[in-house]
Design goal:
The complex is a heterodimer of chains A (299) and B (316).
Chain A lengths: L1 H9 L10 H11 L1 H18 L1 H4 L30 H37 L1 H15 L3 H12 L3 H28 L2 H8 L4 H37 L11 H8 L8 H28 L1 H7 L1
Chain B lengths: L1 H27 L5 H6 L7 H10 L6 H13 L13 H36 L4 H15 L2 H14 L16 H35 L2 H8 L4 H38 L5 H10 L3 H29 L1 H5 L1
Helix pairs in contact in B: 1-12, 5-6, 5-8, 5-10, 6-8, 7-8, 7-10, 8-10, 9-10, 10-11, 10-12, 11-12
Classes of the chains: A mainly alpha (299), B mainly alpha (316).
């Protein structure tokens, strides 16, 4: 703002350039103990996902030992019904979860974000049409629509990611559309237009930095629900297929041996709960930090 | 209120048409030959039989004609026949519906009974120990997958308490006590998330109301704190919490798919999921359509209650 004012005094007005929202949010998160706990939990699983081949004691699909060995010795979290190391499968399972999270939320963000921007930029018939489609998508309970799409397209990790991405897209369309409408009416955007700035320049330079905060919060929250959705699908046999180590698949197949070997069902579920908790803590802290009303302690 | 109701009902029509169109398109997206998928690989069909099946499923017509014909049938309450059992889908849904409704109602009731007082107390004793414990429990409740919680509850009850719920459905009209015993674990598994959501919403809504001027006025009049909280704060704070229930119906219906499967309860969710497993797509189509329409109607009902309780909504 200072730059804008200074230059305005000189007579050469330039549109306002918003502060860097990413740096601002990272600062809030690190100072917030709840947010910091969330970041650390998520970081732990990111490290596990990236360094899985270095950290995992065994190949996740190899069957090196006896079936259903209890935790201890060579197998810290025991072995499953095929003699596979549960810890190694959980470590590799974090790869599946993060891959699904990144790709499905990426699809949702791209599809929904584009629809939201187009809707707010063109308004009129385009806006009405897009928003009606969004309303219709919202009319379905999310997990039922995800299950139906995955069931129809065939059970696999790829269809799970597509289904989750499509079903979460409307949330991003709404999240992007509302602030874009506000930004588009600002004087600095009018000014930029008067200076001959094109659609792409206005979007990239003025709109995107202004809508970044709500989009980042929604991305964090959607990431956790995407991981949960994939785990649910895989648990039901409609997501990642065996022998690939998805936490949901592990829990789904381990459930049958639960009374004999509880560890095959306990630990994969714990992994899901911890990573989702980490993402929720991060999302909560971000929301608190960015909403002035909430910053006063309303949640 | 009448005008508001009329406006909402008119807006409902395009949404319902959109839902039905999306459900039909979804089923037309089946990869490969739809008839082959529907009858399964074990059955070899002659060209005449194939033609007859195409006609039966409406697949011989262009998509818009197929949609129109299907919609006419749906509006008459006919959702078609199950490919596997040849039973009318509407009848199947009506048979299964009470199980899902009971599960959803009990889960909601449990969540409200626990979450509302906890949310109010958290707000009143803000930043205290109870508030902290409730905050952390809420976050854990939101993070634990319901299917894992269900699995753990089953594990603990069978391994440590030596008790397992019956896996054969018992109607509450036949044996209410046995039915409630059977419902205990599924209801607990399904209500955890709802409890967390309602508790958090109640707390933030109560905090917002407690900061209002009229609460200060009530206190300065010398009213007892309990009266201020119950008569002035809670009544107003509870209104927005009602809307959460509308949104959560979607969660309850979705969660029911998993929970019914785990506990072997043949409700709507179980029917949809088994329709997918058995490639009985007309059942999936009918089930998903029914659930979506029910979700929209419940949300409309919640909105109407909200508008009735808070006149600002209907004059907006």
């Amino acid at each position: 703002m200072a730059t804008g004012t200074a230059q305005a005094v000189k007579g050469a007005w330039v549109p306002h350039r918003p502060r860097n929202p990413f740096a601002e949010m990272a600062g809030h998160l690190v100072r917030h103990p709840v947010g910091l706990t969330g970041i650390l939990l998520v970081l732990l699983f990111i490290v596990l996902a990236i360094a899985a081949p270095l950290i995992a004691p065994f190949d996740p699909v190899a069957q090196p030992s006896k079936r259903l060995l209890p935790p201890g010795g060579q197998h810290l979290l025991g072995t499953d019904e095929f003699g596979r190391d549960v810890l190694s499968r959980i470590i590799y399972g974090s790869r599946v979860s993060f891959q699904v999270g990144v790709i499905s939320v990426g699809i949702a963000l791209f599809l929904g974000g584009a629809l939201g921007l187009i809707s707010a930029y063109y308004l009129g018939l385009v806006d009405s049409l897009v928003m009606r489609v969004v309303d219709i998508m919202f009319a379905f309970p999310t997990i039922i629509l995800i299950i139906a799409i995955s069931g129809v397209l065939g059970a696999s990790m790829t269809t799970a990611m597509i289904a989750i991405g499509i079903v979460y897209a409307p949330i991003f369309a709404r999240i992007v559309r509302a602030p874009t409408l506000v930004v588009m009416q600002q004087q600095y955007v009018e000014g930029a237009r008067a200076f001959g700035a094109g659609w792409l320049r206005i979007m990239l330079r003025y709109v995107l930095p202004n809508i970044a905060a709500p989009v980042i919060i929604q991305t964090t929250l959607s990431f956790s629900t995407a991981i949960l959705s994939e785990a649910t699908l895989s648990f039901l046999g409609l997501g990642t297929q065996p022998p690939d180590p998805s936490w949901g698949t592990m829990l789904g197949s381990g459930r049958k041996f639960m009374e004999l070997a509880p560890w095959v069902a306990v630990y994969p579920g714990l992994a899901i709960a911890l990573v989702v908790l980490g993402l929720n803590l991060m999302g909560d802290a971000l929301r608190d930090a960015l909403d002035p009303r909430l910053r006063r302690g309303l949640t | 209120m009448g005008r508001y109701l009329l406006r909402r009902l008119v807006l409902l029509i395009p949404t319902l048409l959109g839902i039905s169109a999306l459900v039909l398109v979804l089923m037309r997206l089946l990869p490969g030959d739809a008839v082959d998928i529907l009858v399964g690989p074990e059955l070899v069909l002659g060209p005449e039989q194939r033609k007859a099946l195409y006609r039966l499923f409406g697949l011989d017509a262009p998509i818009h004609i197929h949609y129109f014909n299907w919609l006419i049938e749906v509006l008459q309450g006919n959702l078609g026949l199950s490919v596997r059992t040849a039973q009318p889908i509407t009848k199947v849904i009506m048979q299964r519906l009470p199980i899902t409704i009971e599960l959803a109602l009990l889960a909601s009731a449990l969540a409200w009974v626990i979450a509302i007082p906890l949310g109010v107390l958290s707000a009143v004793r803000r930043n205290g120990t109870l508030d902290f414990v409730a905050h952390i429990s809420g976050l854990i409740g939101l993070s634990v997958p319901n299917f894992w919680l269900a699995t753990m509850l089953l594990l603990v009850s069978s391994l440590y308490l030596g008790w397992q719920p019956s896996l054969i459905w018992i109607s509450p009209f036949k044996d209410l006590l046995a039915n409630l015993q059977q419902m205990l674990l599924p209801v607990l598994s399904l209500s955890a998330v709802l409890m967390a959501v309602v508790m958090r919403m109640m707390r933030s809504s109560m905090l917002e109301v407690l900061g209002q001027d009229y609460i200060r006025t009530a206190r300065s009049k010398g009213l007892r704190e309990q009266a201020v909280l119950a008569r002035h704060a809670f009544k107003n704070a509870a209104i927005p919490v009602i809307t959460v229930q509308g949104i959560q119906v979607g969660y309850l219906l979705g969660g029911a798919v998993v929970i019914e499967q785990i506990f072997g309860m043949p409700g709507i969710g179980w029917t949809i999921l088994n329709g997918i497993y058995q490639r009985d797509y007309p059942v999936v189509q009918g089930g998903v359509l029914f659930v979506a329409v029910a979700f929209v109607l419940v949300n409309l009902l919640v909105d109407l209650v909200y508008a009735y309780l808070d006149p600002r909504i209907r004059y907006d």
